[in-house]
Amino acid sequence: MDTIKKIAEEKMKKTVKALKEDFNTIRTGRASANLFDKLHVDYYGTPTPLNQVANISIPEARLIVIQPFDKNALSGIEKAILTSELSLNPNNDGKVIRINIPPLTEERRKDLVKQSKNVGENSRVSIRNIRRDVNELIKKGDFTEDEQKKGMDDIQKLTDQYIKDIGIIIDEKEKEIMEI
């Protein structure tokens, strides 16, 4: 039973970690290198993470500078940024790419909050699915009725805690997006 509980908790932790990583890529009004965590560049025919082909720096609050290790990658980086869902406009000067982060409009902020809530709700669903799968394991396991009841109660407490944690993370992201 303890093994099953540990497996459930590990899966729930991974779900929360994935949510935080997803939230890092949702743009707020500030410049952040995390925006590009999931961005891949076509580098000599191979999709390569941007941070492996370029140095990303934040010299000012609303400016991102991307300096490729290989100047031949400039156009690929620029194309990857333009075709991404980030809605950013890169400026290529032949050596580096500069990206000004425009302030978010009220409408765009509301869209980002809605997107954040959807991502968060998907994480909640994942937690509930983990609970369901673990409860089925407990029912099929060789446990007494009392052990099954206690195990399922423990899994429910874990589920409640992780869903509460996800709610806190969503609220923090919403505040971050809505601050001017």
**Which structural class do you get from the secondary structure elements?**
alpha+beta
Beta-strand percentage?
15-25%
Task: Report Rg.
Answer: 21 Å
Low-pLDDT stretches are none
Number of helices: 4
Question: What share of the residues lie within helices?
Answer: 55-70%
Give a short account of the largest sheet: 4 strands, antiparallel
Mean pLDDT: 91
Order of helices and strands: HEEEEHEEHH
Task: Walk across the major sheet and give the strand order.
Answer: 3-4-6-5
| SS elements, strand count | 6
What is the rounded distance between the termini? Answer: 49 Å
Name the overall outline: elongated
SSE blueprint and pairings:
Blueprint: H1 2-24, E1 40-43, E2 46-49, E3 54-60, E4 63-68, H2 74-83, E5 90-92, E6 97-100, H3 106-140, H4 145-178
Short description:
This protein is an alpha+beta fold and 180 residues long. The chain is built from 4 helices and 6 strands.
